[in-house]
Amino acid sequence: MKTTTDSKLDELARVPLFAGLPKVDLERIAAAGDIVDAPCGSDLTREGRLGHEVFVLLDGGAAVHAGGEVLNVVEPGSVVGELAVLGRGRRTATVTTTAPSRVFVFAGHEFRRIAHDMPVLASRLLRKVAEHLAA
């Protein structure tokens, strides 16, 4: 298991999906992914491609677009890419950073494992997926 820094744990604890989780769970989440810098204009996901990662926007911003139309604006704390990873399918939209951004990136298999092993997180994800589908 990778070692993590307190600052990484603090950043993850501010994400609504992870807020209030015990430190041991945050440590497992932190060890399952990496924080990367994404310049403005970086595509985090591309519509129609298979989904292999889940992205948590820590800083910056992004736009969600499909079929050439902007569908949503993504702010820090948002999670993107989870639908394709959980469903093991194709991306339903392209997500492009609109500012220099810091992103926590999970490999798909790590994200599915964490969701499976943490029922509280799985419940929160289910609510999030329901919200996406209702929008």
CATH class: Mainly Beta
Order of SSEs: HHEEEEEEHEEHH
Label the overall shape: globular
Per the CATH scheme, the topology name is Jelly Rolls
Low-confidence stretches: none
CATH architecture, by name, is Sandwich
How much is the average pLDDT? 89
Describe the largest sheet.
4 strands, antiparallel
Helix content: 25-40%
- Radius of gyration, CA atoms, in whole angstroms: 14 Å
Q: DSSP strand (E) fraction?
A: 25-35%
End-to-end separation in angstroms reads 37 Å
The fourth-level CATH homologous superfamily is Jelly Rolls
Describe this structure in words.
It is a single chain. The protein is of the alpha+beta class and 135 residues long. The protein has one domain: Jelly Rolls. 36% of the residues lie in helices and 30% in strands. It has 5 helices and 8 strands, in the order ααββββββαββαα. The protein has helices at residues 6-13, 23-31, 82-87, 108-117, 119-134; strands at residues 33-38, 43-45, 53-59, 62-66, 69-74, 79-80, 94-97, 101-107. The strands form 2 sheets. A 4-stranded antiparallel beta sheet has the order 1-8-3-6. Strand 4 and strand 5 (69-74) form a beta hairpin. Helix 1 packs across helix 2 (23-31) and helix 4 (108-117) crosses helix 5 (119-134). It starts with 5 loop residues before the first helix and ends with a helix. The model has no long low-confidence stretch (mean pLDDT 89).
